[in-house]
Each structure stands twice: as C-alpha cells, then as structure tokens.
Amino acid sequence: MSDKLSLDSTVKFHTGREMPRLGFGSGGLKGDVGVEAVSHAMKTGYLMVDTAQMYGNEDEVGQGIAQSGINRNHLFICTKWQPPVEGSTDRPTPEQVRDEAKKSLPLLDKSNSGKQYLDLMIIHHPRPDPEGRMNHWNGLALAQKEGWIKDIGVSNFNIKHLEALPSPVPAVNQIELHPWCQQREVVDYCKSKGIILQAFCPLVRIKKDKFEDPVVVKIAKKHNKGVAHVLLRWSLQKGFVPIPKASSPARIDANKDLYDFELDSQDMKELDGLDQGAAGHVSGIDPAHLPD
Where does substrate bind (predicted)? Predict the structure, then answer.
C-alpha cells in the first residue's frame, strides 16, 4: 500500500518524540471490565492508551497496563487534566494545575521504577476563559519542565484558543473527527503549526444512522470490511490518530484490523462529502459553541 500503514506506525511530534498512529480509548471502561480491556488491548498490539481524569478510571487503566506485562518503555500513556467544571469560580494557579495533574502519575504508571512518567497530558476542555486557559497551559508546561510529563497538548481547542496560548506549541489537539464532523479549519491550522490531531469519537459512538449511511455501507462492502474499519481507515489516511474505544476482546481485536486494505481516492472523496461541519458532532461537546 502506498502509505505503508501498520499497527506499529507512529507520528512524530514537533518536539521530536513519537506517538503510535492508533490508540485505545478507555472512556467509560471501569472496574474489572476496564482492567481486562486495557490489558487485552496492550497484549494484542495497541501501544497507546488514552484516558482522562474525568473518566474516573485512571487506576483501572494503570492496572490493565501493569497486568499486560508489556514493558513500560514500549507503551504510550496519554491522559487529560480536568479543568474546573462549567460555571465554577475556581481559578487554579499554574502550580495548582501541576499538582492536580501529578495525581494521575502513580495511578497510570505503576512500574515502580523510580522514574514514573506520562507520555502525554492534555487539557480536556478550553473552559473557562483566556486567563484560565493560560494558567492551565502554564501548569502543564511546569510539569513538562520537571520531566514527568514528556509532551503536553489540548483537547476541544479551536483556532482562537490555540492562537492565544503561550509557548510551547501543543504537541496534540484531541478533537472530535469523523466523516460527518471534519472540523476542517481547525485541522488545517493544526497541520500548519505541526500540531498532531487525535480523533475522538472516530466510530461516531456506533450511531445507527451513521453506521447505516449508504455511502459508508457501500464502501465497506466494496472492501469486504466493516463500517468501523472504513471509518478508522479514513481517519488514518487523513493523518489523524484515532482512539477507538471497545470493551470486548472481539471488538478490540477487530478495531485494529485496518492494514490489509486501503481506501482509494474515490472512497476518500465520497467520505469527505459526508461532512456536516460542527452540526455533525455526536459527542456532548459542540465545536461551534465553545468558550470565548
């Protein structure tokens, strides 16, 4: 295949470090189910796991990583720092943000090597305002300087948010990306700045109307693949880093079966034609209605 994608493919940050091109999403995976799902994913070839303080499952994710037996240095652990809830008057200082962020470290890296670290930490949401975002960003930058977070990024940030951030430039912007919500202006801006795009909800939360869309169904049949395979392959070929979530071993395995086919230019054109802009979002975060 022309782009030679494989499960081992990586993208390079502007910082020089690399991240796997396919991640395992863990939102909603808690308890023993979460531990077993993460462990299975890591054992079967996923090298990156994504979680968040908001998910309340960092400990389970860390247990799953440890249970997998995969060497810590071979894995990429990404989590998201949670800003104060909407409407809160809390305005944490950069030092407070750093201290809150550090609570994730022992939960996720249980290697007990004395050199625990997280590969990537992201600000989960651009609330509440420019001053708050600056403090949040400066807090993660402090953690990065201390060395226990290797790279830092953002999530759900639009162009205005990104332009207003102090240095350093984020390594990643994690946003909702799939054929119905392509956020093209933000994508183009991020690419121009060397910011990698992580795609959340790449499987549109298995929405019936999306999975039965005639265009996607036709392309899936053409390649003798499932609709999920087509959506994830589209994301990979767009240069995004999709992070599909699954709990069953069968689904976890199926979601990485993406490297024995390639979408051709006509397929990509037809999928690109499904874009509904912000109106196509399926998550609880509307890209058209974010904080100023």
Answer: 124
